[in-house]
Amino acid sequence: MKSTPRSAISNYRIVDISGGQVSFKYYDNREDGAEKV
């Protein structure tokens, strides 16, 4: 049986769920830790 890759995202990171897509916050360490969506 093949396993599906999974990723855990904490609820506080989730910004929006609409139209079958999820938007979440993350920090880009390549750009001095800038917060992005």
Output the keywords.
37 residues, two-stranded antiparallel sheet, mainly beta, 0% helix
Short overview:
The protein is mostly beta strands. It is 0% helix and 41% strand. It has one domain (10-37).
Descriptive account of the structure:
The chain is mainly β and 37 residues long. It has one domain. The chain is built from no helices and four strands. Strands 1-2 form a two-stranded antiparallel ribbon. A two-stranded antiparallel ribbon has the order 3-4. Strand 1 and strand 2 form a beta hairpin. The chain is extended and about 40 Å long. It starts with 13 loop residues before the first strand and ends with a strand. 0% of the residues are buried. The model has no long low-confidence stretch (mean pLDDT 84).
Strand content: 35-45%
Strand arrangement within the widest β-sheet reads 1-2
In total, the number of domains comes to: 1
Strand and helix order? EEEE
Major sheet, described briefly? 2 strands, antiparallel
Q: What integer value in Å does the Rg equal? A: 13 Å
Q: Can you tell me the overall shape?
A: extended
Helix-strand category: mainly beta
Number of DSSP strand runs: 4
